[in-house]
């Protein structure tokens, strides 16, 4: 009887120690595109800031569209994507996780080489 109790205790201890190796969790963040900080946006003055300064500071835009019917007017678009992943798995029993993606799009309206308007959308 004493051997069975000792064996049971040893077996329970082994299972509890071994199960710690079977649980895995992790978090990660992936970013792509151009992140534009509030500090940088604060330096852009409509009617003063030039398109060349904007491109020198932020790089080439992701997209550029000419405004139909308004010669010399275009909209420059910069996109930033951030995906946060969180996951947990118990070996051969359970696996789960979640991904949250946030996209920030910043637009700059440029008229004859001068930034005239700027706005940001988040999803």
Could you give the topology of this structure?
Layout: H1 2-19, E1 23-33, H2 38-42, H3 51-58, E2 63-66, E3 73-90, E4 94-111, E5 114-122
Antiparallel strand pairs: 1-3, 2-3, 3-4, 4-5
Question: Short description, anyone?
Answer:
The chain has 123 residues and is α+β, with helices and mostly antiparallel strands.
What does this structure look like?
Strands 1, 2, 3, 4 and 5 form a five-stranded antiparallel β-sheet that branches. Strand 4 and strand 5 form a beta hairpin. The mean pLDDT is 87. The chain has one domain. It is an alpha+beta fold and 123 residues long.
By oligomeric state, this entry counts as single chain
Q: SSE order in H/E notation?
A: HEHHEEEE
How confident is the prediction overall: mean pLDDT? Answer: 87
Distance between the termini: 65 Å
Q: State the helicity in percent bands.
A: 25-40%
Compute the CA-based radius of gyration: 27 Å
Provide the low-confidence segments as ranges.
none
Taken from the alpha-carbon principal axes, the silhouette is: rod-shaped
What's the number of structural domains? 1
Note the main sheet: 5 strands, antiparallel
Class per helix and strand makeup? alpha+beta
Range of strand content: over 45%
Give the helix tally: 3
Number of strands: 5
């Amino acid at each position: 009887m004493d051997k069975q109790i000792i064996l049971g205790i040893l077996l329970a201890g082994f299972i509890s120690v071994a199960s710690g190796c079977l649980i895995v969790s992790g978090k990660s963040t992936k970013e792509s595109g151009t992140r534009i900080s509030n500090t940088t946006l604060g330096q852009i003055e409509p009617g003063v800031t030039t398109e060349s300064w904007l491109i020198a500071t932020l790089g080439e835009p992701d997209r550029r569209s000419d405004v139909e019917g308004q010669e010399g007017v275009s909209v420059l678009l910069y996109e930033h994507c951030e995906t946060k992943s969180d996951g947990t798995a118990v070996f051969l029993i359970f696996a789960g996780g979640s991904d949250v993606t946030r996209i920030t799009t910043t637009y700059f309206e440029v008229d004859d080489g001068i930034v005239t308007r700027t706005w940001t959308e988040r999803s």
